[in-house]
Automatic annotation (TrEMBL):
Residue ranges the record marks as coiled coil: none
Name by which UniProt lists this protein: Pyridoxal phosphate-dependent enzyme
Pfam families according to UniProt: SelA (PF03841)
Gene Ontology MF term list: L-seryl-tRNA(Sec) selenium transferase activity
Length: 368
């Protein structure tokens, strides 16, 4: 069937990669779509909507306050702006000028990742200065404590598969250090599935994507201390205006969170696992590869189909990845480990018919 993108002359995409901004992140539920159409076709007082959606989101995270945002990047910007200015409109209107404010944000070197843009650039956007501490593969508590001074505005922790997964100071310790110095701790939990964990651990602000795990429209939110989420909202009268979120996205986010938290997680995970088994079965027996199952490197409860390319194969894993992307449909895999010969297929974004199309293309590539 031709869908809207093909009618516009674009290639069909099979996403076996994950929640990738480069491919459109996720697909929304029908109910979320209906909600967005109704919201988009009517008027509302936007300040009241921002407050109300924030209020309605609080029970899902256990936080006292929530500020809805255009995406996680905006959530990071507004969180950091909020801890610098508090609810002082004069200071809000001056951002990114932070003259006289505490404006340094401490972040571990192994957390200074590029998720499509550098996370440290979001810190700079609002006039703060990222203070990168430790080394790329090793950070000690002493590095964090040693960087704290009277210009420190916050500590930031990035929870992501993009980060170095060893040698970093734990979130527990980061929270202890922050609170021991009377500083807020901000977590970037963009793609995380657990909406309560970091608030329960004591993080002051947590930034989530509304489109990744939650499968809502392009959106995000900051949850946490109400004084700080209120300050973040005030930035919509300042630098946050350039990060405006639409009324339909706010209502779509709320609906998507309701659907996401209401679903039977065990059944959902079993279904994803079944898709992985289906992929394994479809690819097993093709020449030059070993097929199996792997679990998420960042500890989430996600299994994936794993393909190890044997040394007998005339093509490298990187060449196979490139050949998969090159066709129509274009097939995108999870290719962070293709340089060492392993390709992953993620079940979450797989749509009906995709497994068969992937197997057919792999057969063509491998049998030459
Ligand atoms: C995806 C991602 C972001 C950015 O999220 P957007 O909603 O696209 O702005 C930030 N941090 C991490 C760790 C991410 O994975």
């Amino acid at each position: 069937m031709e869908i809207i993108y093909q009618k516009a002359g674009l290639r069909r995409v099979i996403n076996a990669s994950g929640r990738m901004t480069a491919l459109g992140v996720s697909t929304i539920h029908d109910e979320t779509g209906k909600t967005m159409v109704e919201a988009a076709q009517n008027y509302v007082v936007i300040d009241e909507l921002i407050d109300r959606v924030g209020e309605l989101l609080c029970p899902f995270t256990g936080a006292d306050g929530t500020c809805v945002t255009a995406n996680t990047s905006a959530a990071i910007c507004l969180s950091i702006a909020a801890v610098m200015t508090g609810s002082n409109l004069d200071l809000v209107e001056k951002i990114p000028d932070t003259t006289g404010l505490k404006n340094q944000v401490i972040i571990q070197k192994g957390h200074c990742v590029n998720y499509g843009a550098p996370v440290t650039q979001m810190i700079r956007t609002v006039g703060a200065i990222p203070v990168e501490v430790g080394c790329a593969n090793k950070v000690d508590k002493a590095n964090i404590i040693g960087a704290i001074n009277d210009k420190t505005a916050a500590l930031m922790y990035v929870k992501s598969h993009h980060c170095v997964q060893k040698g970093m100071v734990s979130l527990e310790d980061m929270i202890k250090i922050a609170h021991g110095h009377d500083l807020p701790l901000i977590v970037d939990a963009s793609a995380e599935e657990d909406l309560k964990k970091y608030i329960a651990m004591g993080a002051d602000l947590v930034c989530y994507s509304g489109a990744k795990a939650i499968e809502g429209p392009t959106s995000g939110f900051i949850c946490g201390r109400k004084d700080l989420t209120d300050a973040a909202k005030l930035h919509y009268k300042g630098i946050g205006r350039s990060m405006k979120i639409g009324k339909e996205s706010m209502m779509g986010l709320l609906k998507a969170v309701e659907i996401y938290t209401g679903r039977d997680m065990a059944a959902h995970e079993a279904q994803l696992n079944a898709t992985v088994d289906q992929m394994i079965q479809a690819l097993t027996g093709l020449p030059h590869i070993q097929v199996g199952k792997s679990w998420d490197e960042a500890g989430r409860n996600i299994s994936r189909c794993r393909v190890d390319v044997e040394s007998s194969c005339p093509l490298t894993a990187l060449e196979i990845v490139a050949a998969l992307k090159d066709g129509d449909p274009a097939i995108y895999t999870r290719d962070h480990f293709a340089n060492v010969g392993t390709i992953f297929f993620d079940p979450r974004p797989i749509l009906p018919g995709d497994v068969e199309a992937i197997a057919e293309k792999m057969k063509k590539i491998l049998e030459g």
